[in-house]
Amino acid sequence: MSDEIIEELWRVKDSIAREHGYDLERLVAALESRKYRHGGRTVDLRALRQATKQGSSSKARSLPDESVTDPAS
User: Fold this and answer.
1) DSSP state of 60
2) Per residue in 3-43, pLDDT tens?
3) Would you tell me how many other CB atoms lie within 10 Å of the CB of residue 26?
4) Among 1, 13, 32, 35, fewest CB within 10 Å belongs to which?
5) What is the pTM of this model?
6) Rounded Cα–Cα distance for residues 62 and 24 (Å)
C-alpha cells in the first residue's frame, strides 16, 4: 500500500473526527445512524475475541450467526 493511500485515509479520518468535535460518543452515534440509514450490517467481534481468549482456534475462524447484526431483519 502506498503512503498516498495511508495519507488519504488519515485525512478522511481527521475530517470525520473534526466534523464531530473529536467527541467519540458523537462520532459513534453518527456512524450508527449512517449504518442504519444505508441498511448496513455489522459484525460483533466480541464472539471472535472470546473464542480467541479461550484458545479455540476453530471457533476463532468463523463467527456464530448471532454475532451478525442486520438492521433490516
Assistant:
1) H
2) 999 999 999 999 999 999 999 999 999 888 887 777 777 67
3) 13
4) 1
5) 0.46
6) 29
